[in-house]
Amino acid sequence: MVEQSQPTPGQRVERLRRASGLSRERLAGLADLSATTIKFVETGRRLLTLRVAQRIAPHLNVRDLGELYGPTVTLSLDTRRSHPAVTDVRRALTSWQLSVTGEPATVEYLRGAIDSAWQTWHTSRRQRTEVGLLLPNLLDATQKAARLHEGAERRKSLALLAQSYHLAQAYLAWHGDRELVWVTADRGMAAALDADDPLAMAQASWYAAHLLRATGRSEDALERLREAQALIESRVADGPNEYIEMMADLYLCAALTRARSGDQSAWADWDSARNLVHQALPADYVGLRTRVSRPLVEVYAVMCAVDLGAPDEARRRAYSLDPATIPSTERRGRHYVELARSADLEGAPEAALHLLAKADATSPETVRFSPAARDILTRLAAEAPASIRDDAIRLAERSKMQP
Fold this sequence. Notes:
The protein is mainly alpha-helical. It has 21 helices and no strands.
């Protein structure tokens, strides 16, 4: 009697998807992945990484990842690496001060403190560690100011409180409790609404959209982005540059959201963002907190191409983009990770490892905490050609030891 071989993880995914009545495009949208990723996994062109398995499992009614990988494999659905400062940030977010006394910090002081914290986020090689140290006091100060100030000063304080929640969301996104990330998004929106500030509300919608997309609610994310665009549209033509910057960022977020659902209309949103940045902002403009700029628009083009499963297009888009021009160390590190993802799609492990090493040299915490970087590096350490496997193992070990 001939022993039948076990189905591959990709074949298991396809069988479970069909049994759930889902198309590849629908599963991709629910899991915030590209349809190309699902196709490549099912056809064996790409390994089923833990990140992808975690995202698709709930939508396939899978509770034990052994159903995807095989009967001898049992994996936890929660493997995110935590950061040492999460405990203090959580305490600041969940300490409800029922009685607040004393003199609140001035709006000018808080604005300077928040701007400085964002500058640290974008310029430090270890942005998560440094911002993690700043966040508890920043949250306490902005919460206190929003409680004690009155009138116009209170509304300004609330807008700044929303910014402190947005920074907390950026910090927690890769290594915080999921419930805590939702807290930051919800409170950021609530503070922006109480401030009655259209720009603050649009910013809060941008952050909420990222979280909605990450939890498989891409259509909801796009709806929130459309609402935010409508809110500030009348102010874009005659208002300060911050409104143009915000509108461009809303388009970029929409482009990425569509790309991760395999929707080619992502390029229409990207074109709208590019036109705004090139035609309505100074050539050297860089958003203080968002880093919206001409180079960042090109970074998003690479991201969209990778998520659409088009590594050739990603390579073409990246060809003339000098990483040194990206006005954020954090975004530069993520750009190298995106290029590594593109190389991984093409089956080029040497290039993927080289690009992850570049990411590590730029921003070690990006490689340590980025789910995509960790997935690629874990596989390279186990499966890369012998000529580079030792290098992959060393990089994997070094990334584990980063603070």
